[in-house]
């Protein structure tokens, strides 16, 4: 399986952010997207997640078991955590498990296991409204664990996380890739994903590099 992006053009408002962008991400590989504020990283990720349509070009998951059900192959974590604040942490996660999970749960974790895994054990009954910013982000990351999906698209996944949670995230992300998953993450900070490709979105062009230094990993 591989993510194939061809001749992608993105426009927001009157501004063209990029044109003719092309790259692939193979199964078992990660791509880190970097670039200055406003360059178009989140816009690119929304295109990759199928949440927005490109002006031109295509995004395909080649070799996927169900190529027509692209959105069902994708875990997307945006800037916002997308929690229902009045519901408990456990109820939020149960919702996402049911929403995102398939019939075959594979090795996906149960809600309590996932809460434990992200360091929220004992907090499952609390309404999300009272969780700290980092706890809310940890809960968002727990969504990746309660449903198995091959393509993870993550927008600044470590925002608000302390060093321990960042390391925890990195170990789950590496494990996902090592077992053949695909991962695309936009970030301003190193993610410690191990060997990965990088894509720099600039003001005028996008530049790709494989396992090159110079960009956060
Ligand atoms: N709905 C919209 N209408 C018009 N312009 C938009 C819209 N959404 C985003 N933009 C503009 O598109 C550009 C790219 O935004 P985007 O969020 O993709 O950048 P980014 O690289 O993720 O930035 P950051 O590092 O700050 O998160 C910005 O100039 C932004 O103002």
From TrEMBL:
Residues 3-212 form the ABC transporter domain. The keyword Nucleus does not apply. It comes from the Bacteria. SUPFAM superfamilies: P-loop containing nucleoside triphosphate hydrolases (SSF52540). Keywords: ATP-binding, Cytochrome c-type biogenesis, Membrane, Nucleotide-binding, Translocase, Transport. It holds the Pfam family ABC_tran. One of its GO terms (molecular function) is ATP binding. Belongs to the ABC transporter superfamily. This is Heme ABC exporter ATP-binding protein CcmA. It comes from Ancylobacter oerskovii.
């Amino acid at each position: 399986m591989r993510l194939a992006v061809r001749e992608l053009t993105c426009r927001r408002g009157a501004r063209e952010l990029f044109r003719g962008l092309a790259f692939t991400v193979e199964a078992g590989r990660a791509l880190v997207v970097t670039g200055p504020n406003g360059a178009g990283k989140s816009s690119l990720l929304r295109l990759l997640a199928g949440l927005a349509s490109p002006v031109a070009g295509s995004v395909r998951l080649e070799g996927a078991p169900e190529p027509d059900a692209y959105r069902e192959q994708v875990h997307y974590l945006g800037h916002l955590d997308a929690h229902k604040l009045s519901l408990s942490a456990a109820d939020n996660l149960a919702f996402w498990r049911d929403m995102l999970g398939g019939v075959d749960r594979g090795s996906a974790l149960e809600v309590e296991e996932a809460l434990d895994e992200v360091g929220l054990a004992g907090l499952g009954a609390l309404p999300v409204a009272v969780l700290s910013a980092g706890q809310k982000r940890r809960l968002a990351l727990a969504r990746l664990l309660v449903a198995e999906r091959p393509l993870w698209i993550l927008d600044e996944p470590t925002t608000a996380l302390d060093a321990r949670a960042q390391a925890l995230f990195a170990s789950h992300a590496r494990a996902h890739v090592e077992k053949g998953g695909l991962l695309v993450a936009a970030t301003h900070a190193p993610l410690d994903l191990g060997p990965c490709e990088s894509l720099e979105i600039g003001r005028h062009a996008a530049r790709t590099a494989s396992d090159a230094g110079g960009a956060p990993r």
